[in-house]
């Protein structure tokens, strides 16, 4: 694979302006190598089954990451998007796990720059602000960066962020964690993020600060979440709890089906109990079968919307890939379903929701426009497809 990011991005990083939004784009945008096969828009490497190859997905991810860089600022954020930038960091770290030669030269600058500079943007010292979900997105991002760099400062930051949420867990009348400090709402997302962060920290710091410190927290949160009623009869997770501490019946957003998969997978590792993976498979399968259109393409309510909701679908793709590669005991049929889902969606995005290496929010197409959220979400999908191919 040609090392596009090393050559196309490092020079740009060195000369990046304070606005970090050159107009028009003045740096070379890499294009995937033409291998064989054709698509509506460009030549792509294809398998005998008609799906793109791992190399092709990786090259497409490189092209998309290069386009995404136009939004990266000196403050370490992409277009001043806060929690969304945490998801960009996670996506880059995921890609580095599969293709270090493609991206490590770029992330060697971006990871420490964001760690140092981003908190000053909103005076969010240590990535702490008024929203527990925001904080925990950053916690998970730095855990993933630690996984690919083995640099302790990233894990230390993740642990520090986690403590702010830990102090508040269990305070709401319904139990769990508030979405926002000072707001009584209890939603699924912040509690899934907290569970997943605890489970991941348990596997990376099993005896620190004390034996079982994170593991016991993860089990406690799992038991509360499982009994909260937020997982409905279809194995989909609704948006949160109502004032009576019951499932509010609200939207089953794709990211609510995604975040918990990573935490459940990690709980099986640390506990040896397959029930967590079994639940994760049920949730992932429900999302694949019930949150897709007639062609099998993942959709969310208000699929054409930009803003935060454009970020959601990639979180599910990211965590299905994580399960495919890391979960214990998946059947061949389950892995085949996960792989087919990710490849089909990635192929469709590149053919129908891509223009000039920019990626929109409607994965089934047509391409409308792109922003940081839609771009990084679709990149999560391309990275996931590379990871299973």
Describe the structure using short key phrases.
about 400 residues, Glycosyltransferase, two-stranded antiparallel ribbon, 2 strands
Count of domain modules: 1
* Order of helical and strand elements: HHHHHHHHHHHHHEEH
Oligomer: single chain
Q: From the helix content, strand content and strand pairing, which structural class follows?
A: mainly alpha
Mean pLDDT: 89
- Order of strands across the biggest sheet? 1-2
- Extract low-pLDDT stretches: 10-43
**How far apart lie the N and C ends?**
15 Å
What is the third-level CATH name, the topology?
Glycosyltransferase
Beta-strand segment tally = 2
**Count of helix runs:** 14
- The assigned CATH architecture is Alpha/alpha barrel
Q: Into which percent range does the helicity of residues fall?
A: 55-70%
What portion of the residues fall into strands of 2 or more residues? Answer: under 5%
The CATH class name reads Mainly Alpha
State the shape.
globular
Largest sheet: 2 strands, antiparallel
């Amino acid at each position: 694979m040609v090392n596009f990011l090393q050559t196309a991005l490092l020079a740009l990083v060195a000369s990046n302006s304070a606005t970090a939004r050159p107009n028009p784009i003045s740096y070379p945008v890499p294009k995937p190598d033409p291998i064989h096969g054709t698509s509506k828009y460009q030549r792509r490497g294809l398998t005998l089954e008609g799906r793109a190859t791992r190399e092709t997905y990786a090259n497409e991810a490189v092209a998309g990451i290069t386009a995404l860089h136009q939004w990266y600022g000196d403050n370490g954020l992409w277009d001043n998007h806060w929690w969304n930038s945490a998801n960009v960091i996670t996506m880059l770290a995921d890609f580095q796990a599969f293709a270090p030669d493609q991206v490590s030269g770029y992330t060697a600058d971006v990871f420490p720059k964001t760690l140092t500079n981003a908190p000053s943007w909103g005076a969010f010292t240590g990535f702490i602000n008024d929203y527990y979900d925001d904080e925990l997105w950053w916690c998970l991002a730095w855990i993933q960066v630690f996984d690919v760099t083995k640099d302790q400062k990233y894990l230390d930051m993740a642990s520090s962020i986690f403590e702010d949420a830990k102090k508040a867990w269990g305070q709401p009348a319904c139990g769990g964690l508030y979405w926002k400090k000072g707001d009584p709402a209890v939603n699924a997302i912040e509690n899934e993020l907290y569970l997943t962060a605890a489970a991941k920290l348990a596997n990376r710091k099993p005896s620190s600060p004390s034996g079982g410190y994170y593991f016991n927290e993860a089990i406690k949160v799992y038991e509360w979440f499982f009994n909260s009623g937020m997982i409905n009869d279809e194995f989909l997770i609704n948006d949160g709890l109502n004032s009576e501490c019951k499932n509010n019946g609200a939207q089953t957003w794709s990211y609510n089906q995604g975040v918990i998969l990573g935490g459940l997978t990690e709980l099986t590792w640390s506990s040896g109990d397959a029930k967590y993976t079994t639940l994760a498979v049920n949730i992932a399968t429900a999302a694949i079968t019930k949150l897709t259109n007639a062609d099998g393409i993942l959709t969310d309510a208000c699929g054409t919307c930009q803003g935060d909701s454009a970020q959601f679908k990639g979180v599910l793709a990211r965590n299905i890939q994580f399960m495919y590669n890391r979960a214990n005991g998946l059947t061949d049929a389950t892995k085949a379903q996960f792989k087919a889902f990710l490849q089909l969606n990635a192929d469709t995005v590149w053919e129908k929701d891509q223009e000039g290496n920019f990626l929109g929010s409607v994965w089934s197409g047509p391409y409308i426009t792109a922003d940081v959220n839609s771009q990084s979400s679709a990149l999560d999908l391309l990275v996931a497809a590379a990871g299973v191919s």
